[in-house]
Each structure stands twice: as C-alpha cells, then as structure tokens.
Design a protein that fits this description.
The chain is α/β, with parallel strands linked by helices. The protein has one domain (about 5-230): Rossmann fold, CATH 3.40.50.720. The protein is about 40% helix and about 20% strand. It is built from six helices and eight strands. The chain has helices at about 20-30, 40-55, 70-80, 105-135, 155-175, 200-210, and strands at about 5-15, 35-40, 60-65, 85-90, 135-140, 180-185, 220, 230. The protein has an eight-stranded mixed sheet, with helices on both faces. α1 packs across α6 (about 200-210) and α3 packs parallel to α4. The longest helix is centred in the middle third of the chain and has 29 residues, at about 105-135. The chain is globular, with a radius of gyration of 17 Å.
Length: about 240
Amino acid sequence: MSKPPINPKHVLILGAGPGLSSAVAQRFGREGFEVTLLARSERNLTEVAERLRGENVTVNTVTGDAADTQQFRETLESIAAEATPGVVIYNACVIAPADLLSVDVDFLHSTYAVDVLGAISAVQVFTPAMREAGSGTFIATGGYASVFPWWEYASIALDKAALRNSVAMLHDQLKPEGVHVAGVTITGPIAPGTPAAPEVLAESFWDLHTQPQAEWTNEIYLDDKAEKKTVTVTLD
C-alpha cells in the first residue's frame, strides 16, 4: 500500500520554541512553506505561532512529549497519516546538569528518549513516504557536547554524540533513495545580536535543505564564532 503523499512545501519542527525553532520556521515561511510546530507546552506554541502568523506564515501547532516514547510515536503517526512534511527538523533536547558519578540512571533514560529516540522515531515515521517519493529532508540540531563533552553535563554529551552518529549513519543509508539526512552542529552559545543569533543559524538549515543532491553533506558545523564549515562525518 502506498504511503500518504508528501507535501514538499511543509516543514515540521519537533521540539519547537521561541528561539532557534522560531527563526527556522520564519526562514522556511519566507519561502512559502506551511509550518507545523510541535512541543510539550501549548502556551509556548501559541506565543510562537501568533508571532509567525503576524509575519504571514501559515502555522499549525501540535502538542507532544518525546519523553513519552509511545505517545510521541502516535502523535507523529497521526501527522504522517494526513501527509508527510517534505522537511522534518528535530530540535528537541533536555539541557540539565548531570555527572556520571551521581546521576540517576532513570534520568539518563528520560533524556535519551528526548534527545535521541525521538529523532529516530521521527525518521522511522516520516521517511518511508519520502523514500517512496524519492525526496525529502530530515535535519537534526546538534551541539557542542557531541564534540567537546563536559562532565558536568554528561547526559547531553552522551546524547548529542549518539544523535550525531545516528545522523551520519542515516545519511549514508537514505541518500541513495533521495532522502537528505543531516545535522547542524552548533558549538557556541545561541544569543540575539551575535554571530550565533537564531536568524543567522536558521540559514544553515535552509542551506542543507537546498543543497544540490550531488553536493549533499551530512553536517554543517558552526564553530564558536558561528563560522560555517560543511563537513562529512565518517564512521570508519
């Protein structure tokens, strides 16, 4: 049975918030994309959606919590049942202090569900229709901790490393089928009015989506000055 069609002018942002996600939504919205935002907090979604609608972006909102893996999967499947977005961006992340000598193992399970397993579920739900269509983009937001692990934030260091490796593997696996899986790794603080302002970083997501297929890379790496490097992570 054929999968529901993909909508190439629809972007789904998972883990949406008022900073980077909002800027990415605005960037795609300027290109005529319909935007769907998913987050745990309906209040935060409403605030971001209203701001985007004020800029003439078509916005839908969905609540969902990646920490609840079954419920999150069902929410994603309900979105895909209508039409698969042509672009899916995974920006969900838990940032909290944790060191390996004292952290509760259950906490590590919960952060891994949000930081890694949610992204894998999204790939499993949305890329079948992309593969059938021979087109689609999946982008995950990475971070400094995958490159420079810091013991006081051990959970995010472990999780971002796993996410980065997942992206590299999925890139190689799905590229032959016309699906571009990539990551944006940001190693510096995101702050308005700096080289790492959300609206500046949002360009990297657009750049990955619009890369010619012959030039597809699995990562854009932004150093602490937001200087862009297009790289390919290998697992050899």
